[in-house]
Structure formats: C-alpha cells, structure tokens
Amino acid sequence: MLDSKEVFDVKEKYIPAPEVEKVAMELIAKYHPHLAEAKIAYVFKKDSWSKNGKWILGSAHKCSEKEKLLHGYDFIITINRDSWMLFTEDKREAVVDHELCHCGKSEDGKYILVPHDIEDFAAVIRRHGLYKDDVRQFSMAIRQVSLFDTKPELRVIGGSE
Ligand SMILES: [Zn+2]
User: Fold this and answer.
1) Which of 79, 112, 145, 149 is most open to solvent, judged by the fewest CB atoms within 10 Å of its CB?
2) pTM confidence score
3) Ligand 1 centroid vs 148 CA: distance in angstroms?
4) How far is the CA of 95 from the centre of ligand 1 (A)?
5) What pLDDT tens digit does each residue of the chain (161 aa) get?
6) Are residues 126 and 71 in the same domain?
7) Residue 19 belongs to some domain of the structure
8) Ligand 1 center from residue 117 Cα (angstroms)
9) Do 62 and 99 fall into the same domain?
10) Which helix (DSSP H) or strand (DSSP E) does residue 54 occupy?
11) Has residue 155 been placed in a domain?
12) For residue 5, how far is its CA from the centre of ligand 1 (angstroms)?
C-alpha cells in the first residue's frame, strides 16, 4: 500500500488530461476504428520529461491483465504537459495520433502495443541510403508528405515505454 507521501508525489507529477481525450476521440473516429471500444486513460506528466537530451512528447502503455482488473483501462496515454502547452493544435494532434498508433489490436482481438515503423540512425541512412524495407517505406511516406501535405514542418518524437 502507498503511504501518503507517495500518493502526494503521484498527484503532483500526473494530472488527468481531458483535452487530450477530446483530441483522441476525434482521431480514433477518423483513423483508429479498432480503438472505438478500448478504455484509454489520458494523463499529463507535469515535470520536464526527457531522455538522452530529447524531449519525450508522450508515451503509450498497454495495461496488464492485473492492472486492468484493478482499474479497467486497456491503455494509458501520457502526454508531456510542457510541450503540449507550447504546441499548436496541429502538433498536438500529431502527438496524440502518434501515441494512438502504439495502441493496436491483434487478429484474435487482444490489445497490443505496436512498435515504431522504423528504428534507425539518420547518419546510417545518409551513408548507406535506403538499405532496408522499413526505411524505404518511411522514405516514401516522407516524400508523399513533401508533395501533397501542407504540414511538412511537423516533427514528433515519442516513446512507447
Ligand atoms: Zn512512439
């Protein structure tokens, strides 16, 4: 059982994020229909949140069977409140969309955590080009954005841990 100090610390660090939920509901209806029935908790992390010198904009957590028994949620999406406050509406949407992309559903109907499409280094791609399928596919997506989209400046980083 948590003592009162631990409870206090948790309250200080995380707060409910209804405005994130509002953005997420629209994105789920548009792009993530498999999450229509999912129970997702949305919280802000209040202190500055970074890893290896980069801001963490958000994270997605798939709740275990035990956690689900205790609180009923399938996923918890945590958003960095400092960056949220600075971001435009478009960037906020991109961050929430990114975290929702981590929330998947397997063919047998179980919720799963989906890893990023690509894990690589810009330096390796600069030196060796589009050397594997996922890098090639990502490059195609970037080229499509450059040609057709009006929001090429959007950059999102995030973690699934
Ligand atoms: Zn991510």
Assistant:
1) 149
2) 0.82
3) 24
4) 9
5) 444 444 445 557 999 999 999 999 999 999 999 999 999 999 999 987 888 888 899 999 999 999 999 999 999 999 999 999 999 999 999 999 999 999 999 999 999 999 999 999 999 999 999 999 999 999 999 888 877 665 545 555 555 54
6) no
7) yes
8) 9
9) yes
10) strand 54-55
11) no
12) 31
Assess contact for 51 and 159: CB atoms under 8 A.
yes
Q: Tell me, in angstroms, the distance from the centre of ligand 1 to residue 18's CA.
A: 21
- CA dist., res. 46 & res. 13, Å (int): 5
Note whether residue 43 is domain-resident: yes
Residues of the domain holding 135: 116-150
CATH number of the structural domain spanning residue 62: 3.30.2010
Q: Can you read off the two tokens belonging to residue 125?
A: 């791609």
Residues 85 and 99 in one domain: yes
Residue type, 25: M
Q: What's the CA-to-centroid distance between 119 and ligand 1, angstroms?
A: 10
> What Å distances lie between residue 84 and 11, 119, 133, CA to CA?
19, 24, 33
